[in-house]
Amino acid sequence: MTPSLLRQFWHFVEQAQVGRLLSMDDHTLQGWLVTQFTDIYPLEYQQRCHLERYISSRLSLIREVASDRP
After folding, report:
1. CA–CA separation, 61 and 56 (whole Å)
2. How far apart are CA 37 and CA 10, in angstroms?
């Protein structure tokens, strides 16, 4: 994933509703993030696969970022 795409992803996470991010199980959260992000930023198949793996490896960090927000 490019640095630009990573910045866009984390900006997307920061803008997402906290309750939504914290209420889903891992599998559902990963699928929701991929679907919502790719609706905004269309990705090629390979990029989408990289994003899925990236999200999977960062789920605890995503939840931590969400729980630190007011």
Report:
1. 10
2. 10
Beta carbons within 10 angstroms of residue 55's beta carbon? 21
25, 51, 53, 70 from 56: Cα distances, Å: 12, 8, 5, 24
Give, in order, the Cα–Cα distances in Å from 45 to each of 17, 21, 23, 38, 65: 27, 24, 28, 11, 27
CA distance 43 to 51: 9
Average pLDDT (51-55) is 97
What pLDDT is stored for residue 69 in this prediction?
Answer: 83
